[in-house]
């Protein structure tokens, strides 16, 4: 949306200049109405994007996922006019800039597919067993309270999504665990177990720090 505003103000400047013919393509696009996700949804189907990109832009065997779009509107327009891969080009006669702005608004309105961390529910009892079975305790301590070989991770200060990311690709001393070794469900169970653990004692209750 911010993009459109920027574009609109750029065009407003162009229009304000008397040397520019009001019928240039740029000036014409300035007349385009605000993008509408509802119109975009219809255009996405009627123009035929849907055949390859799927009803929600989620992708099919013939086209990649494009919703929610990681690119900006100008990039979409450029790509649709001059694709560089297998996608056929669409001229302005087939799909107008206005329709593409609407399609972009529609793609933006599509919620991202739920990630594993949002759909998983963990089981603390099972997590406790797995924490031992996978040897996490060897470095993180029996109750996740930390050891000389690893930091305290119970209760975790980070989200399940962050734990999933870290365990798959640690950046420090910790060895990585692939999904083949420890599944996302296993990690959700471990996370739920760690969440159930008591927080560390406040610093004031540690005698050494009070001396
Ligand atoms: C015949 C199948 C087909 C149709 C129809 C089609 N696309 Fe594509 N599209 C693809 C494929 C395949 C790609 C992956 C890159 C490539 O091979 O061109 C792609 C890539 C894209 C990209 C680039 C995404 C990126 O992240 O780089 C955009 C944007 C896009 N399509 C939008 C559209 C829109 C909007 C329409 C309708 C006007 C449309 N496509 C119609 C097959 C299609
Ligand atoms: C060989 C020792 C070792 C083992 C085994 C181990 N870790 Fe770690 N872990 C570490 C260390 C050390 C760190 C601190 C960052 C680093 O150096 O990678 C860490 C960091 C983490 C973090 C990030 C903490 C944060 O707040 O950023 C998580 C989450 C974690 N470990 C979970 C696990 C789980 C779950 C297991 C079992 C599947 C496990 N670890 C097994 C040593 C280990």
Topology of helices and strands:
Layout: H1 2-16, H2 25-30, H3 37-46, H4 49-53, H5 73-81, H6 97-109, H7 116-119, H8 124-133, H9 136-140, H10 160-168, H11 184-195
The protein binds heme C (HEC) (2 copies).
The site of one heme C (HEC) has 23 residues, from α9 and α10.
What does this structure look like?
46% of the residues lie in helices and 0% in strands. The chain is an all-alpha fold and 211 residues long. It has 2 domains: 32-109, Cytochrome c-like domain (Cytochrome Bc1 Complex, Chain D, domain 2), CATH 1.10.760; 117-199, Cytochrome Bc1 Complex, Chain D, domain 2. Helix 3 packs across helix 6 (97-109) and helix 8 crosses helix 11 (184-195). It binds heme C (HEC) (2 copies). One heme C binds at residues 47-49, 51-53, 62-64, 66, 71, 76, 79-80, 83, 85-88, 90, 95, 103.
Question: How is this structure best summarized?
Answer:
The protein has 211 residues and is mainly α.
The CATH superfamily label of the largest domain reads Cytochrome c-like domain
> What would you report as the Rg, rounded to the nearest angstrom?
26 Å
User: Which strand-content bin applies to the residues?
Assistant: under 5%
Attached small molecules = heme C
Total of DSSP H or I helical runs spanning 4+ residues: 11
Q: How many angstroms separate the termini?
A: 58 Å
Counting helices, strands and paired strands, the structural category is mainly alpha
Low-confidence stretches: 1-31
Q: What's the main sheet like?
A: none
- Can you give the mean pLDDT? 84
Compute the number of structural domains: 2
Helix percentage: 40-55%
For the secondary structure, the number of strands is: 0
* Shape, principal axes of CA atoms: elongated
Order of helices and strands: HHHHHHHHHHH
CATH architecture name of the largest domain: Orthogonal Bundle
What name is given to the CATH topology of the largest domain? Cytochrome Bc1 Complex, Chain D, domain 2
The CATH class of the largest domain, by name, is: Mainly Alpha
């Amino acid at each position: 949306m911010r993009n459109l505003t920027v574009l609109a103000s750029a065009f407003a400047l162009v229009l304000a200049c008397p040397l520019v013919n009001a019928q240039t393509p740029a000036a014409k696009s300035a007349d385009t109405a605000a993008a509408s996700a509802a119109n975009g949804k219809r255009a996405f189907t009627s123009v035929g994007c849907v055949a390859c990109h799927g009803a929600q832009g989620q992708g099919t065997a013939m086209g990649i996922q494009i919703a929610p779009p990681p690119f900006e509107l100008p990039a979409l327009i450029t790509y649709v006019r001059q694709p560089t891969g297998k996608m056929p080009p669409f001229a302005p006669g087939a799909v107008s800039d206005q329709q593409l702005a609407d399609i972009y608004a529609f793609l933006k309105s599509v919620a991202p597919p739920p990630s594993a961390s949002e759909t998983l529910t963990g089981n603390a009892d099972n997590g406790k067993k797995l924490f031992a079975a996978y040897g996490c305790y060897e470095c993180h301590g029996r109750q996740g309270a930390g050891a000389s070989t690893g930091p305290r991770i119970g209760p975790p200060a980070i989200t399940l999504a962050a734990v999933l990311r870290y365990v798959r690709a640690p950046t420090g001393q910790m060895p990585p665990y692939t999904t083949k070794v420890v599944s996302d469900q296993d990690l959700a169970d471990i996370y739920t177990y760690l969440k159930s653990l008591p927080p560390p004692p406040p610093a004031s209750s540690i005698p050494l720090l009070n001396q």
